[in-house]
Design a protein that fits this description.
Keywords: Membrane, Transmembrane, Transmembrane helix
Protein name: Integral membrane protein
Shape: elongated
Strand content: 15-25%
Number of strands: 6
Oligomer: single chain
Number of helices: 4
Radius of gyration: 27 Å
Length: 174
Amino acid sequence: MPASHASVSRSRHARALPRKAGASSALRYGRLVAMGVVALVILVAGVWGSWGCAQHVMLSKGREQGTMTVSRCEGTVCWGPYEPVSAGSTARQRVSIEHSVAVRTGETYSVVVKPGSSDVVRTGPAGLLHAWVPLGGALLLSSVVVAGGLRMRRSAWVLGGAGLALITAAWVAL
């Protein structure tokens, strides 16, 4: 092979390498961005799912507070009478609460009434932890995405540990 032909062949390969490395970098950054967005969407969905109940528990000042005795459960809802504790709250014959492991028939719970409805949410540490359980699940799920998709194992362990701690604390508090 003539020397000029060999140098032309080497120069073609030299020019092709940076392009291939650039495409590889673009794919790598695209994967990182996509997995980052997926992890962020999972976390936002967890907060969104938790905030529906958590806002009533955390921001209960000025809302109707009282106790509820669960008299009957059917499907995903339990009912019972409501006795007011806070000033301005009125007694009700029937209020409803979501049926879950946190609610048992015959038990009495401290609750807050959702404004404009007859739905109630548990208050106190157990109610607060139970309200944030969807976020705990989102933390666990996003830890898998962060570990596998972003290859950030330490961050994934932190997210997973926080999710597991939240879910465990809610289970223990119930």
